[in-house]
Amino acid sequence: MARTVPRLPEALRAPWKGRPATKAARPAPRLPEVLRLNRKRRPATQDGPAGEARPRHALPLPVRALAVLAAFAFMVAFAVVLARITLQPSPASVPLTHSNLHPGRSLRAYLEQAPLRDAVRQVGGNVLLGVPFGVLVPVLAPRARGALQVLALTALVMLMVELVQGALVTGRAFDIDDVILNTSGALLGWLLLGRRLGRGVHRRVREPSAE
Fold first, then answer.
1. How does pLDDT run across 21-59, given as a tens digit for each residue?
2. How many separate domains does the chain show?
């Protein structure tokens, strides 16, 4: 006598309706719309993959060129003034000049021995000589507009000036404290104005490319 197979309840039979017979024939699950869009491969361009933001300068090219040209003119004028101040011979000062390789020695002498007016003139004058570097270098050299780069460039230039003074100019001597004061002036100029000018002239913004 044949046995009758019991029928499954409707709730258990419903999930099996319409399923493929084999695992290979099952359709792949569909990804959410956001994931499918992200997986689409788009062709790359010269500026980067398509759809990415392309950097461009915030200021138009003529404005940036004019700013750099003005900074270059000021730097040339400053170089002329610097040469006249630091490289002009002073025969009358020969008995009074002495080389200084110890940081802080001349500063102590200015503050302890010299009159206040002379101390302010010496210290303030050397600080002011470094200020144009901190203001103009970030505009002229966009890759060197950081504080460390400006300080390193200022120290290098003023060190060369001091070496020329001590070796070739009569009545002048090498003084490491002058280099320190000049570099401090460059930092002051960078903090007050240079970083803002460099950022404003060479700032870049990102513009999304057309899809």
1. 555 555 555 655 544 545 554 444 444 444 455 567 777
2. 1
